[in-house]
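tool_call: predict_structure(chain=1)
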Amino acid sequence: MKEPIRNPAQIELDRPADHFHEAFLLGNGSLGAALYGRPETEWFDLNHDTLWSGGPATETSGRTDDAARSQALQELRAAIAEGDHEAADAVARELQAPGWTESYQPVGRLAWRWRRRGDAGQGYRRVLDLSRARAEVHSGGESMFSFVSHPDRVLVVQTSQSDDAPPPDFVTPHVAASVNVEQLDTVTWLTAVGRAPAHVIPEYERDEHPILYDAEPPAADGTVAAGMGWALVAAVQRTAGGVRLLAAVHTGFRGWNQRPSADLATLCAVARSRVAASLACETAELVARHEDDYHALFDRVRLDLTPSGDRAAVEAQRYFDFGRYLLVSSSRPGTQAANLQGIWNTDVRPGWCSEYTTNINAEMNYWGAEVAGLPELHEPLFDLVSELTDSGRSTARSLYEAHGATTHHNTDLWRFTAPVNGDPQWANWQMGLAWMSAHLGTSLDFKWSEEFARESVLPICREVAAFVLDQLVEDGGTLLVSPSSSPEHQFRDAGGVRGAVTAGATIDQEIAREVLVRLVWLAKRLDESDALSARAAATLERLRMPSIDEHGRLREWDAPLRPVEPGHRHLSHLYGAFPGTRITSTAAPGEFQAVGRALAHRLENGSGYTGWSQAWVLCLAARLHDRTLAAASIDVLIHQLSSPSLLDLHPHADRPGGVIFQIDGNLGAVAGIAELLLQSHDGAISLLPTLPTMWSAGSVRGLRARGGHVIDIVWRDGRPRSALIHSTEPGDVVVELEEGGSPRIVDSGGCSIEATRLPEAAIGRSRWQWATSPDGVSVVDFPG
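tool_result:
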């Protein structure tokens, strides 16, 4: 008998989580909670987005003084020019800082016995309801639901039991923390305060004392140089429907360049006030505010693949919605940007510091924000870019004698921008800020705002472009980025020597072009052209672009360099196809084919074995119109690279189960799945460009396209039946469709709109252009 397809809006499991990566995650952008679904005593592993080790950076330059660094840079570029890659890697280390980024920290674990003892397995199930952003546990006839409220800034836990519940226990890994429990009237209060470590050595480094706490008391103003304070306040109260627990966390973070507070009494008072305010409200009122706030974001897009009747399609729908749920839960205006694990972490020394890795992971977290209708959730990344621009000026100047600003491979809450102490193949990559800045331009592509463009985007573009221009060196009449590397990958030269640092790695050339094109375009549109934008325009004419090898594959480096790992997890050389938009089937057909061959070669040799890498494969498959690869990629993500709770996994031998949760695969897949249904990067709105075969029927509402359009699509038998296009700006609409008949287009009142067929389109596709109607609504019907 065929098993029925479960509700795609829910993740339902029949056993509690054994490990963190199997937990259900709740969050409001700042406060995060991981729930294990335990049938008697539930665990709530708590985090706050601003609780990090360390303090404002005091050292972002290299190991040597200015004169020595200048000499090192000259030696580095000379070694690169001479093809002495062994020497280049050795000199690159001289530019590295003596230390590393700091680490994202856990608050600790609340353990609360919410259910009477009994048969733990009787009727057990746990559910994460994506439509309501809440977790539920059902066991032995009793139930508990939990959510983290953004409006009220508290964790809310409500049980159905009628007996009094004991106070929660709290355990924190931070030394010298204090915990106090008291009964005041009908409320049991738990208060915990402590300090984060002053410094944490990354978990990949060996050190005799990897975690250091500062015992020095705060200054008169309550601040400290490092080791911010934190406070947790929880309250347990009987309600008409059972018993509930409310909890809030507050930290001493005051800004990336400000000494944090360790005034524990004041921090505790802030957290307690939030809980007290929520105690004055009925649970139903807290639920209503939470769900109204959540629905205003999550409900903007609605993907329905259930009409296909295919289990794999419904699983893809759930995975798409889960990714959107995680972005809403981990990134809100005013919060920190989502890090490697969003806002969830249980370790004082988390994997890779749980920081911001700028060579793919930080950016991937936000690939889907615009197209999936969540543009305001992009803002924390914009804030990160802005602050890194401020922090990164001194690094550009001191390490590269360059104008503008830069950020290397790793950064953190304190906006560390120097190359960390590590292997040059990852540590010395200096194009992180340039890549992240592209997201500001993408935001303008989706919705133009002159104020945002003039006040925020253009100043950052100028800083980034100034740095990029100063990285370019002459090579045979063309310009190459030097030094340059392809993130985390090494090459072999003609003599078999392994190296990482060279000139003109494909990704760096692509990003350099993207930065300069954006500056020229933006300066012209805003009538702000100047000497810098003129220099950028002239430079573009000489910038060398990637070549194609003898096998028809896009190169990662110029010949004669060859990859050490043909199946490397990074797909950096394919940047121009995704997330970039330069390489398309219509604009660059030869390179488009070369991207497809390069991706196939990577996959044949084992790439895509991490969740985030596979999400990049999915996005590339969407752009390459490879529906078979796209379907296979989604299947791998869900069934091989996800935990039972659908959390994205990365291999890590030292972690339970040999894996570690990384959120980038979940969030990157949002973009990949959306782009199977809608693309808008090649001068046209492309409807259903890469629809997987098993998604035979369905609908999607609310996807956003570049140019200020919101799109609804309905399809049957694998072909579009209708589309509704809401245009926020007057002008022309260009839509690309699968070849086959002429669409009928009307306005919202049913009056026909004349459309013209355009000659430029990919093979098997057609393009149609028409003027937007006065009300901005175009209804498109398809023959057949």
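agent: The first strand starts at residue 10 and ends at 13. Proceeding to next step.
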